[in-house]
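Now for a sample.
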Amino acid sequence: MKRISTFIFLIFISTIAFSQSQNDYSYSAGINLFSYGEYPKLLNEVRSSENYRTAAIKGLNFKFNDNQISYRLIGTIYSENDYSFKNVCNDCETVTGKFKQFSAKLGFERNIIYGIVQPFYGIDLGYKTITFSGTSRDQSNAALYNVEVEKNGGLIYPFLGVKVNLLKSRLTVSAEAGIDMLYSHEKEVKNNGGSLTIENYKRWGFFNKPLGMLALQFNFGTQ
């Protein structure tokens, strides 16, 4: 029985070691499907456990695969027409409006093992821009002021993930978690009908991404 178990184990290890992987192909192109995590604060947004947002993101990714390393270019867009948050304090005011975020990142990922299932790690550098247009209302739902927010900055995104290669590695499903480290310039414009207030800030922000990206990729171009 021990010999049979050992034989099956060796076959399993050999299958993983010599099976095809994404890196048998020179290029990968795919779509970004889903994310879950924190977003940058707007105004004096009150933070709580509810600040982790689930988002169906729109985006594309392209990779050049070189042995165990893939060089990648990723662009994503996320928008929400009824983006709402508590401002200053939970009982002070609620701000609701249209939120839009765009990011472009360039980086690399390195596979830890070679096989059908591949853990990986890497880092991206990029640019992120956020715009928000909305209205603040008090507890009685009376309008306080209209607000426009623009946030632009440089992005560092270290990550860990795992990918599964399917259909002889022609298709790859990958999921990754990371941290968005954003240094941004923020402009806030408030208009209460009688006066206009403009404020500018430069800030560092660190945003946890338990699921930074779930992606589906098509691999092509044999090496």
User: Anything to note?
Assistant: The chain has one domain: 2-222.
